[in-house]
Amino acid sequence: MLTSLKQKQQGPRYIVVEGPIGVGKTSLARRLAESFDGELVLEPREENPFLERFYKTGRSAALPAQLFFLFQRARQMEELRQADMFAPVRIADFHIDKDRLFAECNLDPEELALYEQICAKLDVDAPVPDLVIYLQAPVDALLRRIAGRGIPYERTIDRAYLEKLTDAYARHFHNFDEAPLLIVNAAAIDPVSNEADYRQLFEQIQRTTSGRHFFNPAAAVALA
Predict the structure, then answer these.
(1) With contact defined as beta carbons under 8 Å apart, do 217 and 199 qualify?
(2) Residue of 37, 84, 93, 167 with catalytic role
(3) Known active-site residue 93
(4) CA neighbours within 13 Å on the CB side: how many for 174?
(5) Is 166 annotated as a binding residue?
(6) 145 labeled part of a ligand binding site
(7) Domain extent at residue 35
(8) Mean pLDDT in order along the chain per 10 residues (224 residues)
(9) pLDDT tens digits, one per residue of 53-85
(10) So which domain of life are we looking at (predicted)?
(11) How many domains does the chain have?
(12) Which residues pair with 182 in a beta bridge?
């Protein structure tokens, strides 16, 4: 049986699961919240009224979709920061940095300049995660998973956009040093449906308290 946070007081209090669209971050976050007996903090994608229009029309809805997410994420980060330090461990399926990552991918220069002005005014003071889990997978795998989950407006997501997005994630986490980082080859494992894969990953998560590490089904190997 996996050790819950109630049984093991030492360990991360705020875990972030990140990665491109379709990589499985929300599903993994849900399992981790159950194992840690913690609170799940989800990105409310369904509430964004501009998202479907963005996927269908692209540029015309990029800025309002981006700003809607920015305001939501800023509010969620403020709530996390104000939360009681003795509250349960929190598992989020997004990191605040993803907002700028998507903005740089989706906005034209003038829109990005406006976005940056608004960000500066918001001055989001996000809590630093105790651990960031970055899920990686090739574009073919992402496309299959997106098709499999059957969200109608996601059917318009094409290979070129996913390639651009996965490249942006790779560049971002290449330089990431804000928190301990666990890079997971999500194409080689199924931590949501495969209990052995999940157990091994969960044990690695509990061990990762510093540095940068890579996890695959065979072993968790420290990169540096």
Answers:
(1) no
(2) 93
(3) yes
(4) 6
(5) no
(6) yes
(7) 14-20+29-222
(8) 41 91 94 93 87 84 94 90 74 94 95 96 90 96 90 87 96 94 91 89 92 76 41
(9) 998 887 789 999 999 999 999 999 988 887 765
(10) Bacteria
(11) 1
(12) 133, 213
